[in-house]
Amino acid sequence: MLTRQRPWMWHDEDLRKSKQLTLMSRSGSAAPPLPTQEFGVSLEHIRDNKGRVVPPVVKQVVEFIRNNGMTTEHIFRRSANVLTVKEIQSQINHGSLVDLASYSDVHLAAVLLKAFLRELPEPLLTYALYDSVIGIQ
User: Which GO molecular function entries does the Swiss-Prot or TrEMBL record give (predicted)?
Assistant: First the structure.
């Protein structure tokens, strides 16, 4: 049986139309996101609740990497302790301040940045901007 190959953008559009891709948290819970939540929610949610265009967690980890990891090789290729990452994500989502310097692991900050971007319900280059971005070529 032959299946028709479709570009990924059509697949994403089909998912959104079928309501399988939602703007809810990717944690799988049906509960609405917390006002302080930063992981797994839309950028609009963060902007509306935090009043900032750049999410605080992004600013914090980028500053930490800039100050402590500019000479570290393969910074985004190494992993960090999964339990520590989940613990920090939970603390940030509940509005607690996290001191990344106390962990003294630049790879942890890199993993947090990757996790934030991965858990966004919609990509940074949104579906609406896809055709414009492709047209830049």
Answer: GTPase activator activity
pTM for this structure? 0.73
- pLDDT digits 0-9 by tens, 46-66: 999 988 889 999 999 999 999
In whole angstroms, give the CA distance from residue 44 to residue 128: 15
Q: Hey, which bits of 51-125 come out as E strands?
A: none
DSSP E strands, 15-92: none
Buried b (16+ CB within 10 A) or exposed e, 57-66: bbebbeebbe
Instruction: Tell me which residue of 43, 45, 62 sits closest to 124, measured CA to CA.
Output: 43
pLDDT of residue 133: 86
Give the relative orientation of helices 82-93 and 106-118 as an angle to the nearest 10 degrees.
Answer: 60
